[in-house]
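Team,

Forwarding the record for the chain on the shared tracking sheet. I've put the sequence and predicted structure together so nobody has to dig through attachments.
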Amino acid sequence: LDFWTGLANSDGTVNADYNAGDGIHVNNAGHRLLYERVIAAGVWNSILNVRSAHASLPTAFALEQNFPNPFNPVTTIRFALPQSANVSMKVYNMLGQEVSVLVNGQLNAGVHDVPFNATDLASGMYLYRIQAGTFTSVKKMMLIK
């Protein structure tokens, strides 16, 4: 999160003088275009929040209950990976229809937080399912608008 702090101005434009402090500068049209595409795709929160939440590595795969639960309209889902794995996390309605793909790709070992924004969904019970290597787990969450 600290990497992105200061990237955007309050009016949504890119801070031309942005410096992450590690030699990365956002000062050209390419970075601005990337930023605008990220915002337009609606994945800004995912980029900010799919990150390691703890310094020590977990010893087992785990999927935690989302928090808060019930929620309106944003919640966070935390999961643990004891080793690097190809991770798929999807949200389903009670008819078994996929309504969102939260993660789909390789992640490093660690504890990860993923935001889920259900602004476009109706109130009700939803399932979230993670697959990471041979580990699979499913939990319920309640959206109340």
